[in-house]
Amino acid sequence: MSLHAQDDPQLRKDQEARLRAVWKPPSGWFFRWTDVNNNRIGVWYTLTAFGFMLFAGVLALIMRTQLAVPDNDLVSANTFNQLFTLHGSMMMFLFAVPMFEAVSIILLPQLLGARDLPFPRLSAFGYWSFLLGGVFVGGSIFFNAAPDGGWFMYPPLTTRTDLSGIGADIWMLGLSFIEVSSVAAAVELIVGVLKCRPPGMRLNLMPLYAWYILVVAVMILFAFPPLIAGDLLFEMERLLGWPFFDASKGGDPLLWQHLFWIFGHPEVYIVFLPSIALFAMLIPTFAQRHLLGYPWIVLAAVGTAFLSFGLWVHHMFTTGLPKISLAFFSAASEAVAIPTGVQIFAFIATLWAGKVKWSVPLLYASGSLAIFVIGGLTGVMVAIAPFDWQAHDTYFIVAHLHYVLIGGTLLPLFGGLYYYWPLITGKTLSDRLGRIAFWIMFVGVNLTFFPMHLSGLEGMPRRVFTYPADLNIGWLNLASTLGSYLFASGVLVLVIDLMLSPTRKKAPRNPWNAGTLEWLAHPDDEDWGIRSVPLIESRYPIWDQKDFVAKVDEGRFFLPDAEEGRRETIITSVLDAKPVSVIRLGTPSVKPMMTAVALGAVFILTTYHLYLLAAFGGVATLGCVLWWLWDTAAIPEKHEKPIGHGIDLPLYIAGPAAPGWWAMFITMMADATAFSGLVFGYYFYWTIHPNFGADFAGPGTYWPMVALLLSLASWVATVAAREVHSRGAVSPARALLVVGALAAIASLGAGLRSLDGLDPQANVYPAIVWVLVIWTVIHAAIGAIMQSYTVARSLAGRMTPAYDADLRNITVYQHFFALTALIAYLTAGLFPEAGL
Amino acid sequence: MRRWLRRARDLRVTLWTLIVPPTTWAAHFLFSYLWAAISCAKLGAWARFPTAFAIGTVAALLVIVIAGLIAWHQARTPGAPAPHDEGTEVDRLRFLAYSTLLLSGLSFIAVVFTAAPVIILSDCR
Ligand code: HEM
Ligand SMILES: [Cu+2]
């Protein structure tokens, strides 16, 4: 054996000491919360989401107690409305989605053998936004101010301020704030999967969990923004009286339903696929063999993601849409059963082919699949429009949705909890308590929700706070209530098990004998993530690669050291994971937390109509963001550094190879999707209203065209600046950027000018024109800020022709801005004039 | 045909090619929905034979079939023996191609599903 530097134990000790020092978490009663290590943030995130789940569960128990017997008066109708709205909203927005993001933030860096994901500060920001928004929304029930319009908040009852209190604003603004944090996490996860894989982990070697997370994060990018657009219109109507959903002024409540369900249906898969992803990790472990049909699973994940966007109208079967439209959505609903079935068959086949060990996680996996399949079958039933007309808004739907959500989200997560607990805490959970909890929950779920199918078919509508005795469904409801308490006691057993865990002894490393990278984690975890970044040659490296664990631990792979005292990780190429660069990661900082607080202030103060203070919050947010960005993309002290094995990598990259560029690109995809939601609104009104745009004055053609030309000028100037800058002409580039910023500001003026004389409160047509133009104008302002910021970076010596990430990133923004301006101004200025 | 297919093998396969078939499905779906919504809202019905719809459907199916053919050919690029899960260039190509092929199949079925109602139902009510 050759003598290798890493054979020297002293060297390894020194390296470990350096790594430990760099990755040391901040301490102190306050500063420990400024940590930005995803390992730690992920744990806070998970605990918080779990807490919200327990809270929402208690709300459900109160509801079930109220419904136990006919004509009960435990809670008033008003309280009941708040209970089910908050229960549903919290379960979906504050538990299911954040939980998957939280778990992924913990698991992904380890699965990908990365020191950390690329934007740890962004994760911290997401977490603090989530905590703040969640407490705000959840806490409202203690002030009798919780939203009460159901989790889908259908207007017009919810937009009429005389019929709904502050609760509706809390829902809209609080949850929009949380959606921002969900999108932030999605950006982190997508870039993490694409760019932070270890060398050699080509796309076909990627753990299936990473595939699923990639797919789900992309889904979030396309699903959440339409809801954000809807929220925007909703609040415009509530706060300013712009009649988007008010039929008496040309609006239409159905638009909300469209925007909500374009989000709402994919949401169901957003919370289901990550749980399936957990199965894809634990089933091979307990079958002790590779998962069968790897490309089939990728097909299933990608296929489900796509098809799920074609289903939204199946929630609107009873709204009187043309039958032909319903048929399209019914067809897509049936088609999505194909990829779902494929995944389940791949799992069954793997178990069949392996020698199965019936452990607790596997018990949860199979039990929850059984429950999910029952929910899936009733799903196929309600996807058929005529059946849905019978079952719509009855307890049959409540039964269906809970079978799917509990079988598809909650129980799989519990299975994952048992599986991954040793990874995160170093301790195992009790086998016995785990089995007891499972069986109690399994019986409880069926006892709670199976009778609901029957009570629904007997005619019990959902969302009623009580029912008369002569409907003869008292016994069914009593059974449901008993079941829900049974289920809750199962959860209690599980919680007790978790509480007892600290008293238990350490588990061995990799206790289940798994083959994937995350199990490199040691029971006495270090904060550095991974000792050295491995070279991957197969899908189950711990099983397949010789001496793999020892080599990682002895620092024999890449980047075993932190000579410069900086937190670092390796960036690789998207397809083949060829190493392209080493990046420096964010270190603990109060900035993410402060930004979250400032942004939270904007949303929360707006809820209480404190607009001036909210505006201050907006300025503070902008300040925080700029301050935060100022020390990113720093020019490194040297060009390259060795990562071992004779490979030198640059310390700075810009353009499509860089994580920052991807983050910008992805964020702009989300932004463009939100904008398409608004454009969809415009054309939606046009299709259903014969006189749309005819009875009220429009913006004319002149000013929108001027604004458009100026916006395009701003874009051209930026692209030109990037080109001349990369050729070394720094001063002309600065001048072009200044011109670009001035053009953007002028376009802002012209855009506003075009709104002169349009009264947005009068009719939906001027209102939607206002929204399109305001949206574009705000983007022009942000563009101008970015251009000025880039000039400042250049003047401060933080950007040079060789180090031009800032300029390249704002060019991406400008591409999207130009497209936005084009669509918005052509629509507003030409469309109604064209005589259509 | 053969020669074209052989040339297809040299096409660069990326993560983007993977989503061509389902994106085609999405475009067709959106087109169908908009076409039905607009013709029902503005005309109250569609003409006897929905020409635009038929053309759109055939075009979508064609794109999917071509993507599938190319993928099928690429998936058979010779190289290491089955099970094709090594960390080599060929196996990565074959994996992406095979997944694309599977997605073409799914997208084809989904487009046919979407088209079926137009043939079966023939008005807006
Ligand atoms: C044992 C656990 C649970 C019980 C006993 C329960 C019970 C209930 C009840 C009684 C309702 C109100 C039905 C109505 O009056 O219309 C409801 C609604 C709902 N639940 Fe659950 N639930 C549980 C778990 C969950 C989970 C895990 C999720 C999601 C991850 C969830 C999501 C929802 C949603 C979205 C609604 C609709 C709310 C609305 O109509 O606005 N539930 N649940
Ligand atoms: Cu749905």
Describe the structure in your own words.
The complex is a heterodimer of chains A (836) and B (125). Chain A has 836 residues and is mainly alpha-helical. Chain A has helices at 9-22, 38-66, 77-111, 120-139, 167-195, 208-240, 253-287, 294-307, 323-335, 337-353, 360-382, 385-391, 395-425, 431-457, 474-500, 541-544, 548-553, 591-607, 611-630, 659-688, 702-726, 730-754, 764-795, 805-830; strands spanning 568-572, 579-584, 640-644, 647-650. The longest helix of chain A has 35 residues, at 77-111. The model of chain A has no long low-confidence stretch (mean pLDDT 92). Chain B has 125 residues and is mainly α. Chain B has one domain (17-120). In chain B, α3 (20-43) packs antiparallel against α4. Chain B is elongated. The termini of chain B are far apart. The A-B interface holds A 200-205, 290, 294-296, 298-299, 302-303, 306-307, 309-310, 322-325, 327-328, 330-332, 334-335, 338-339, 536-539, 574-576, 687-688 and B 14-15, 18-19, 22-23, 25-26, 29, 32-33, 36-38, 40-42, 85-87, 89, 91-92, 94-96, 98-99, 102-103, 106-107, 109-110, 113-114, 116-118, 120-121, 123-125. The site of protoporphyrin IX containing FE (HEM) has 25 residues of chain A, from α2, α3, α13 and α15.
